[in-house]
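REVIEWER CHECKLIST
Item 1: Sequence provided? yes
Item 2: Single chain? yes
Item 3: Sequence as submitted:
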Amino acid sequence: MTHMTNDTPQAAVRRIPLEDFFRNSQEAAFQISPNGRYLSYMAPYADRMNVFVRPVEGGEARRLTDETERSVAGYMWADDERLLYMKDTAGDENYQLYGVGIDGTGRRAYTAFPGVRTSIIDDLEEIPGQVLIGLNRRNPEVFDPYRLDLATGELTQLAENPGNWQGWVTDHDGRLRAVTAIVDGVNTQLLYRDTEEENFRPVLTTNFKEMVNFMEFTPDNRDVYAATNLGRDKVALVRMDPRTCTELELLYEDDTYDIASISYSRKRRKLLSVYCTGHKEPVRHYFDDDERELRRRLKAHFPGYRFGVADTDKAEEHYLIYVGNDRTRGAYHFYDAATDTATKIADIAPWLREDDMVEMHPVRYTTRDGLDIEAYLSLPKGFDMDTARQLPVVVNPHGGPWARDTWGYSSEVQFLCNRGYAVFQMNFRGSTGYGRRFLEASYKQWGLKMQDDITDGVRWLIGRGVADPVRIAIYGGSYGGYATLAGLAFTPDLYACGVDYVGVSNLFTFMKTIPPYWRPMLEMMYEQVGHPERDHDQLAATSPALHADCIRVPLLIAQGANDPRVNKAESDQMVAALLARGIDVEYMVKDNEGHGFHNQENRFDFYRAMERFLARHIG
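Item 4: Structure as written out by the authors:
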């Protein structure tokens, strides 16, 4: 194949306005009412995402919320006549729960308690007019479970959290039957009861590295479908006796990946399938022939695309299907199972043309100590894996760090590729979904082997000739921001510049400023990241803020003033240390944001700054 020079294919590429990549979706987050008569979705109003409802057969849409300070954080149907929605204040993540009727009337605040965070435990689909929620109202560090009566607003506390209970499991009748707890800081305990009249009693205690997660009760409410890695490396799906945590039956185990989710039919009271996130293609195993046939029919409607069931009505006759791939933000279709007809109802971002976007290529490389790393390489328009040579590259490690990158559409990736950069993302050790050994290989390795995995990927890219060694930037958010700072401090010759978005800079101060509801897990964090006293020297050696004198290249730092996870002091101290040494550092702080920028105008500002910064240093 003829080798193309760097500027030949890019010369003909249409430069897409930055705002087109990062503006609010035209319509998104579609759901269907339990009776199947109404569609709900989120759409912009005053540049914020608000909740709308319209009849399935078409007609006028009604806006139910009028948030202008900050987008609605999420919503759901409570019953056929009412929706619930959540919002926080300026990014503080103290979500409050509100309700509104589908005609726009009867709006009310259910949990508008200052400084209190609300979580949904169970939507109680089978019990009209009630939901189970968690509130840290009594003690900011712990959440108590409450039954909320939507008609009266009355809250009934169902149990008092002794201080270490972390998660709740309900049965199909909406009864609280199990709870997970942290004991001794680093052990996980499962507590169980047969009825709500009984007290919870411990049934299993494991080290936090071992996992037993009750995903769903069996149809008779007797056993549970559990995700577990007890006695194995990969998380498998088993049927388990919750009274003893005895494994009764292995239902599915994959050789390569942890299971990620299951599909269960409430109407048919049946386990349908189990799902693993693959490198590109998902891994799905069926327990139900009708579900397999449904998926086969859907695939025939959307050849060449990835699709998923976004929602279904209570009768499971009408489905909302999300359809997308790596080159489109996607679309929603309404599917009638009885007639096998699919009707498109919305494009999420119709102003972006699929043909203008680029592919995300799944690639792999091997680390210096022999680990296999799954990664993704996206190339500017006009290049392929054979012709990509000496390109400017943005290395983009994910946040978490116990999370993972997946194949699919990314606004950031497409924007950077449109501007002529290759983008490289890698699932370094500790990325989730790859089994216990891979996860544990990351413990106490911030700035060490986890960082080596990123470095080894960059060197692999240089070795293949894809990356121009003098035009490589590193950019990430949260843990990815930490990896950016660590990359600049500990491999100063590898990168030409860096962009740190709400990233950790000092491991000592980071663990002192975590949200109160993370405190019960602090001992676990010490095991995963390091103990400020026992591992003092290691944490000092791997805190980029304490090694600002090693950073020699320009840096852009962005931070939300109200970030509850990575305190603004993390960025302040890094900036101060760099400015004191005369390093070129640009600092953007948004006073109405938290852990990441959610308001559209702030996103625009950040990516404009990034665009200018990268053009100046690796463009």
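Item 5: Key structural point noted by reviewer: The chain has a mean pLDDT of 94.
Item 6: Recommendation: ____
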